[in-house]
Amino acid sequence: FPVDRIRNFCIIAHIDHGKSTLADRLLELTGAIAKTEKNKQVLDKLQVERERGITVKAQTASLFYSHQGEQYLLNLIDTPGHVDFSYEVSRSISACQGVLLIVDANQGIQAQTVANFYLAFEAQLAIIPVINKIDLKNADPERAESQIEKVFDIPAEECIRISAKLGTNVEKVLQAVVDRIPPPDHPFKALVFDSNFDHYRGVVANIAVFGGRVRKGDRIVSAHLNKTYEVNELGLLRPDEHPTQRLFAGQVGYIIAGMKDVKEAQIGDTLYLQEQPVEPLPGFKPAKAMVFAGMYPVDQSEYPGLRSAIDRLTLNDSSVTVQRDSSLALGAGWRLGFLGLLHMEVFNQRLEQEYNASVIVTAPTVPYRAVLSSAKLIKNRRAVQKNMIYIDDQRVMMKYLFPLNEIVVDFYDVLKSMSSGYASFDYENAGYQTADLVKMDILLNGRSVEELTTIVHRERAYRTGKAMCERLKDSIPRQMFEIAVQAAIGSKILARETIKAYRKNVLAKCYGGDITRKMKLLKKQAEGKKKMRRIGNIDVPKDAFISVLKRK
Ligand code: GTP
């Protein structure tokens, strides 16, 4: 049933003013029960209720009602009128959006009429006043109506005069239920699934609304961080921001609520209205970082700027994990975790393009747990087939156990090209396994380049080391002196390449004495050097680091 055609209401009244009788009529009118003498006070199911003719326990009945060509589902909750059972009334009220407030035309407002009215009023329910028993000889509906106007501040015209006993005007009551009671409105509940930082407006969070609605000016709470904000702006993404007055359940949009710190709009967090706390949504399974690399500013003076750039970028990409780290050679920096190598490169590129940051990225590694014991000596197979399932005559699904470092860098690309793009690949963590691994250093003129230190399988060390040396040779420009590029395990050298000495004379094309032009060229060369990382007296371009780590 569409929620806009559901009405939840209860009937409240002073004792004996006719709730159960009206309920019977409503049930009959909507065909829920047959209209016979026997069907009296059908919602009073308990024996004690029937014997005493009073309602003790709240009862519920669902009615189907057609109004102006539309089917409505009316959920009626009958409540007891006696003061002893007012707990039942408040419980019923909390499940409803509206009430029928019955007043006996003869007796007028009584104590429980007032008490029950306030319960409904405080719960901000729609209140429909119904004057009952107008068939009675002494009925004085005008008096009852003016009491309602005076005591409850409800205009007399809003009252519906009925005889529950005879069924007079009961149809009008049903119409009023549909017209005057709003459909159920679940508490606002939204999931933050993305967010970004805008310099002028602060944090812009993308949300999916799972329940209720939110408006500008509402006070909302972030469930995990438990902070309260006022909604300044919200709207839909079409795909540009399109401000609206509200966001409803089922809608996806953006919200700006004065979050200043980039960490405030945590992806996976739940937002709710301050006055209507809800259970937080399950959120997202935290992404599991598979590749780790150190990130350092080229110059330590750039540390604060880089920190805020990384903070902002990780707000936008919460799958990146960040830990502070420092190294003797590189100073203060971070250890970042990524989902894969491409992810790492994209992150690095975004840092440069969107935040104008210049960073040194160390050799990516996968998480290892090192146990220094002879059990490493155990020969390890690099991939173990687990199973093979024919999905149909065209497709087969194979499961292998792989060491993560075998697949993380380029396995996907190789697989795709080998299968002309038909094969697809996915992986999940299968835990740690023992393996025969060695730590391999890359040396430039005998000095270890910390960023390029890698952990490799012993059997692959030579091949990997040789390839890395070759690629470094290609990506480090010649300098004024000869450079030896070596791969080593401990003191054992595995591979060597040599970069011949050479000096790029930027002034070669300058004839004559145009000093300003010379200065310009020298300045340009100096700026180019900024993008270099100096290891010993060797300038290594930043790009060399990533290109070296990729396999061909
Ligand atoms: P509790 O369940 O005890 O809270 O009472 P209630 O408010 O449900 O009242 P109920 O419907 O049991 O009606 C009380 C008495 O008023 C019964 O004897 C009904 O027959 C009578 N009554 C209800 N509606 C009308 C009406 O419209 N006209 C007349 N004349 N009597 C009515």
UniProtKB/TrEMBL annotation:
It catalyses: GTP + H2O = GDP + phosphate + H(+). Its main location: mitochondrion. The lineage of its organism: Eukaryota, Metazoa, Chordata, Craniata, Vertebrata. One of its GO terms (biological process) is positive regulation of translation. It is a peripheral membrane protein. GTP binds at residues 13-20, 78-82, 132-135. One of its GO terms (cellular component) is mitochondrial inner membrane. This is Translation factor Guf1, mitochondrial-like. Promotes mitochondrial protein synthesis. May act as a fidelity factor of the translation reaction, by catalyzing a one-codon backward translocation of tRNAs on improperly translocated ribosomes. Binds to mitochondrial ribosomes in a GTP-dependent manner. Belongs to the GTP-binding elongation factor family. LepA subfamily. Belongs to the TRAFAC class translation factor GTPase superfamily. Classic translation factor GTPase family. LepA subfamily. Keywords: GTP-binding, Hydrolase, Membrane, Mitochondrion, Mitochondrion inner membrane, Nucleotide-binding, Protein biosynthesis. Gene3D superfamilies: 3.30.70.240, Elongation factor 4, C-terminal domain, Elongation Factor G (Translational Gtpase), domain 3, P-loop containing nucleotide triphosphate hydrolases, Translation factors. Residues 4-185 form the Tr-type G domain. The gene is LOC115402256.
